[in-house]
Amino acid sequence: MVSEFEAQVRATNDKINARTGRNLAMALTVGLALGLSLLFSLIFVKELYMLFAGVLVAFTAFELASALRFAGLNIPRLPTVIAAVAVVPASFYWLAEGQWYVTLAGIAFVGLWRLVELVRPSHRTSARAVLRDLGAGVFVMLYIAFLASFTVLLTAQDGGEWWTLALLIVVVVSDIGAYASGLSFGKHPMAPTISPNKTWEGFAGAAAASVLAGVLLALFMIDQPVWVGIIFGLVILGTATMGDLAESLIKRDLGIKDISTWLPGHGGFLDRVDSSLLSAAAGYALFLIFA
């Protein structure tokens, strides 16, 4: 009886894995570990969240720089990681001013490093290729370091850690809603040329879950009225969806399925945080408007 039940569980799990292209059990384990680490750092010691964010930014910047190098763009990885990570403490201790100044300084640092590399004969290339390399460096700094640092900037505010937690919860709930609804009812592709697995049915599930989560979080976590919760849920739904599609477009352009394989069941760090990047900036803007 037990062996028959185990066989049924394995068969169901294999079907889900085949349909989603992921190891569901491993994905849940890794996601739970990351979620608990995030929750502990946000609730108990804000500085721990800064360190947590710094580690995520380091791995994510390295992943994206490596993927772009694989595609033929010569981005100096170590300088890019150093510059990206520097934005995190700057955002925490010096707030928006530090975030902007250090991001711009990081872009200049990475660009200068690439230009200095041209002194070596083995690194010399055409002016067009150099411009592409410089543009790729700017992209990594803005897409990863600048956007991700908004959660740090938000957390540094008085009571901002609860807004950070709220926006991340909505992102996760949106993802779960899309996954469950799409897996059960998905028939109509949402963006077949960018992300074939996304469906309008999944988006509808994500919308319902996001609005419900936004309302509950507004009432019980960030002390806001219901209408703010609805706006909060809808805005984060939109940015999370755009963030996910943007990363899918990047991977499609690079010809890869995952940015890396460092997180079992998820792919890479960027595959896990893609929906949170634009949402971080949106969450900070909503905090400034309503808090």
Architecture overview:
By secondary structure, the protein is mainly α. It has 2 domains: 46-156, no CATH class; 158-291, no CATH class. It has 9 helices and 2 strands. Helix 4 (77-117) packs antiparallel against helix 5 (127-155), helix 5 crosses helix 6 and helix 6 packs across helix 8. It is globular. The N and C termini lie far apart (56 Å). The model has no long low-confidence stretch (mean pLDDT 88).
Proportion of strand residues: under 5%
Radius of gyration: 20 Å
Biggest sheet: strand arrangement: 1-2
User: Using DSSP, what is the number of strands?
Assistant: 2
Indicate the multimeric state.
single chain
What's the overall geometry?
Answer: globular
What does the average pLDDT come to? Answer: 88
pLDDT below 50 for ≥5 consecutive residues: which ranges? none
Along the chain, the helix and strand elements come as: HHHHHHEEHHH
Structural class: mainly alpha
Fraction of residues in H or I helices: over 70%
**Distance between the first and last residues' Cα:** 56 Å
Our count of domains comes out at 2
Largest sheet: 2 strands, antiparallel
Number of helices: 9
